[in-house]
Structures are given as C-alpha cells and as structure tokens.
TrEMBL record:
PANTHER family named in the record: BLR1237 PROTEIN (PTHR42928:SF5), TRICARBOXYLATE-BINDING PROTEIN (PTHR42928)
Stated name of the protein: Tripartite tricarboxylate transporter substrate binding protein
InterPro entries reported for this sequence: BUG, Bug_dom1
Superkingdom, taxonomy of origin: Bacteria
Pfam families, sorted: TctC (PF03401)
Originating species: Rubrivivax albus
Family: Belongs to the UPF0065 (bug) family.
Length: 340
C-alpha cells in the first residue's frame, strides 16, 4: 500500500512536508488496522455457518427434508447455522461433485440421494466415485410400490406374475428412464420372479399414470407419494419393503407375497473424504437429533414415508451395498458406462 507519498511542496516547506508524512501515515496505518479487524470479524462470522448443498432444485422432494434438518441440527451444533445452497443439474451429480471437491473440514456438507451416489456412477464417467465421501447419516427412505390401474384384473403380485409368465409379450411397464430406480426395481422383480416384460420410458410419474389409465402400459413402480395422490385411480399390488408402511397399512409387502425384494429411494448427508472422525460423529449426532424432532416426523407423515435414520457407519455400509447391487442390475440392462 503506497500511503506515505507526500505532496509536492515548494522549497522551504520541509517542516510542513515532514508533518504531513507523520499525520498521513498514522491515518493510513489506523485505517489498515481497522480494515484488517473488519475482515477478520467477517471471516469469523462466515466460519460459524455450515454450507448444506442440495443438488436438486428448490421445491423438490429433497428440499423439505433439507430445510427440516437446517432447523433441527442447529441446536445440536451449538448454534451453528446450516445455510442451504441449491445446486441442481445432471440428475444431482453437479452438486454432489461440489461436495467431493470441498475442503474436508466439516464446513461443507451435502444431502444427496440414491441416484448420484449408487446408480449414475455406473452409467457415466463422473468426477467422483462412491469412495470420495465420508457418510454422515441416512436421513430418509422413500418406499416404492408396484401399481396398476384400478380397472386392472390383477389384485395380487401372484396374479401379475402368472399372467406375465403366460404372456411374455403383453406385460408393459414404465419408468422414468433406463437405469432409474423404478426401472431397476422392475428389472430385479422380473429376475426374481422369472418373467419377461417390455419397457416404455416415461417423462415422469404423471406421464406413467396417463399411460396406465389409457391402457398403454400394464403398470409401473412408483414412489408412495405418487400412489397416495393417485390412489382413487390406482391399485397398489405390493410395497417393495420387508415390513408394511404404517402410513399404508393395507398395502401388503412383496415379502409377504413371496418375493424378497426391497427397493426404495433414500437420501442422506455426506462430507468430503478425509473429514476427521470427530467432525463426522458430531454431525451424525446432530442428524440423529434432527430426524427425530416433531417437525421432521410430521414431514415424514406428510410424505407417507417411515423413519429412515442411520448413523455414519450404518449409512456407509448401506451405500456400499446399494452401489454393488445396482452395478449388477445396470450391467444387466446394458446401460453401464464403458468409459468409467
């Protein structure tokens, strides 16, 4: 900083020149100290916040979960605020990659889901892998159900499977695309039960519902939220879980009907690989408290989903199991990337 350059004064004014230099430099030094203190204070304030990256748009299904965690974790973290940053794009992989690149200091965490962590890495060359994160906690699960139109003749999974085996070219199922969770659930069901089916990708659950109600598809695997919204016009043949969902007690499980198939959407908190264990434990404990608050449990009831919290070690084991499982299924569909 060039602070002490004196003005050009006529000859004979050396005394004034020296006085200016002393006063001017003193003012500049004081200003520099004030600026340094202000910057330090600002940095300290910013350091009290934790950035929570949500790799999906505001208003999506993950957003209510993130905002409930934002409120619920604050007290457990000694008043440190979680600042939500939505970073959507590429099916959630852009924001998830941002977490992988962050410093492993606990100041940047992410909430991401099954797709960016366990299916898309098998189908595309990404800048991260499943081993580039430390897993903090699973925050929620979203069970899936196999649904058919209310006008369908099928009342049970057994009836559906028997027809599919007898008519391999007549069962048409939809999903949101090759490699999507509903598609992989249907693939696994076909493998497990031993039947063939035709796949018609749709633009989403609303489009699949239109196709089903119009008689263009036999049925599809949908999230429980979709089923609840369309229940008057749809029938759930089974929920892809080992236990019944308390919010849908009349829907029998696949396991009850002889098919040991579990498939659900899920999400959880992640931090960059290398984050110290003490920080991970602190965040996981805060997550445990937040996912059991009345506010959070009300959100679960609204979404018709069960409690899904898992601590750090359990979540890490779960993610690795899901990653291996979906890798095999994606390989079977022919959708696996050759450029990984």
């Amino acid at each position: 900083m060039k602070c002490c350059k004196p003005p050009v004064l006529p000859g004979g004014h050396n005394h004034e020149r020296r006085r200016w230099m002393k006063v001017g430099c003193l003012k500049t030094a004081l200003l520099a100290i004030a600026c340094t203190l202000a910057i330090g204070a600002g940095a300290q304030t910013a350091g009290n916040n934790i950035e929570l990256i949500v790799p999906f748009p505001p208003g999506g299904s993950v957003d209510p979960i993130a905002r409930a965690l934002q409120n619920g974790m604050k007290d457990s973290l000694g008043g440190e605020a979680l600042v939500i940053m939505n970073m959507p794009g590429a099916g959630g992989t852009i924001g998830t990659a941002r977490v992988a690149r962050a410093a492993p200091d606990g100041r940047t965490i992410g909430i991401t889901t099954v797709g960016p962590l366990t299916t898309q890495p098998h189908m595309a060359k990404l800048s991260y892998g499943v081993d580039d994160f430390t897993y903090v906690c699973r925050t929620h699960v979203t069970p899936q159900v196999l649904v058919v139109p209310e006008s369908s003749p099928f009342k049970t999974l057994r009836e559906f499977v028997d027809f599919a085996k007898a008519n391999p070219d007549k069962v048409v199922m939809s999903s949101t695309g090759i490699g999507s969770l509903p598609h992989l659930a249907a693939v696994e069901f076909g493998q497990l039960a031993g039947f063939q089916w035709l796949h018609v990708p749709s633009k989403g659950d609303s489009d699949a519902a239109r196709l089903a109600l119009g008689g263009e598809i036999t049925g599809w695997v949908a999230g429980v939220q979709t089923y609840v919204q369309l229940a008057p016009r749809l029938r759930a043949l089974g929920i892809l879980q080992s236990e019944r969902n308390p919010a849908l007690p009349d829907v029998a499980t696949f396991k009850e009907q002889g098919y040991t198939l579990n498939s659900a959407g899920w999400g959880g908190l992640i931090v960059p690989k290398g984050t110290p264990a003490a920080i991970v434990d602190r965040l996981s404990n805060a997550c445990a408290a937040a996912t059991h608050t009345p506010e959070f449990e009300q959100i679960l009831r609204n979404l018709r989903v069960p409690q899904g919290y898992l601590p750090a070690a359990g979540f890490a084991a779960f993610v690795n199991s899901e990653y291996a499982r979906y890798g095999k299924l994606i390989q079977a569909t022919g959708a696996a990337s050759t450029n990984k």
